[in-house]
Amino acid sequence: MPRSKEIQKQMRKRIMELYQSGKGYKAISKALGLQRTTVRAIIHKWRKHGTVENLPRSGRPTKITPRAQRQLIQEVTKDPTTTSKELQASLASVKVSVHDSTIRKRLGKNGLHGRVPRRKPLLSKKNIKARLSFARKHLDDPQDFWDNTLWTDETKVELFGRCVSHYVWRKSNTAFQKKNIIPTVKYGGGSVMVWGCFAASGPGRLAVINGTMNSAVYQNILKENVRPSVCDLKLKRTWVLQQDNDPKHTSKSTSEWLKKNKMKTLEWPSQSPDLNPIEMLWHDLKKAVHARKPSNVADLQQFCKDEWAKIPPQRCKRLMASYRKRLIAVVAAKGGPTSY
């Protein structure tokens, strides 16, 4: 049966004016050319609700009962990796049949949205305790201490791009056109391993690591790059070297070499890249290098050196000026992962 046309608001008001003037259903129906049942329904609505305006409609009854909703929320709270298809099967077991998109919408209304999980280092209880201890110990260190710390790290730069999602604007049936694809090469097409350092006053030296790095290679990198970087960056005599707990950094021979060369190191909690601001500079470096589209490893090495030297000192200064916020975040997370 076709849906009847809605009576205009002005017509409904006119019906009430005639009714209040003493006219009956039949007379109003004849005067306005409407069905008597329509006139009666409008007048009954006015008597009951005191208005002829459209009232909120209930709509289609929900298929997800309050009990089923509680079940959904409990399951995703217990295991956030549960898929909507698995939730759909779970509800089907209690005779609630709904589409998986309905489940996603209902969870969204309760503030639970599907998101890509953040990747963070796995932290043991020992790691968490060490991170919290480090943050509390250095929370009140003066800014001058951080400004005279030489931050170091190694990273690998791939020739053909970072592992991130890309999107293209294209028409249907053009997915495999050259401009709409991302070329891939076996084993990444090559990469370079680099060691770098920086301080609040700017970026230090960048060294390309050839072959496999062991303790001897690492010590040679420190020998050729640390002291010159300290001089270039004009660090005070009280400067401190930061390095992570990679076995090559903490080996007996490296520890003896550092002691012999009178390089004071900052004690460091394992699994804590979020506490090393050089990670932000690595991100900047890789973004700038890949924007230049290197075609071979030689280009990649040169672009790394070029772009590292271009990092503005103001960027380094801002990173160190806000370092205390990282420590506060670790304390707030009780040693757990942070947003850095």
Brief account:
The protein is of the alpha+beta class. The protein is built from 15 helices and 4 strands.
What this model shows, in words?
The chain is of the alpha+beta class. It has 3 domains: 41 residues, Arc Repressor Mutant, subunit A, CATH 1.10.10; 39 residues, no CATH class; 208 residues, Ribonuclease H-like superfamily/Ribonuclease H (Nucleotidyltransferase, domain 5, 2-Layer Sandwich), CATH 3.30.420. Helix content is 48%, strand content 9%. It has 15 helices and 4 strands. The protein is elongated. The mean pLDDT is 90. It holds the Pfam family HTH_Tnp_Tc3_2. GO terms for molecular function: DNA binding. One of its GO terms (biological process) is DNA transposition.
Helix tally? Answer: 15
**Structural domain count:** 3
Any idea what the radius of gyration is? Answer: 34 Å
* CATH class categorisation of the largest domain: Alpha Beta
* Widest sheet, order of strands: 3-2-1-4
Secondary-structure class: alpha+beta
Secondary-structure element sequence? HHHHHHHHEEEHEHHHHHH
- Strand content bin: 5-15%
Percent range for helical residues?
Answer: 40-55%
State the CATH topology of the largest domain. Answer: Nucleotidyltransferase, domain 5
Shape: elongated
In CATH, the architecture of the largest domain is 2-Layer Sandwich
Task: State the total count of DSSP E strands.
Answer: 4
Domain Transposase Tc1-like: 69-140
Domain Tc1-like transposase DDE: 150-300
InterPro entries: Homeodomain-like_sf, HTH_SB, RNaseH_sf, Tc1-like_DDE_dom, Transpos_IS630-like, Transposase_5, Transposase_Tc1-like, WH-like_DNA-bd_sf
Pfam family, one: HTH_SB
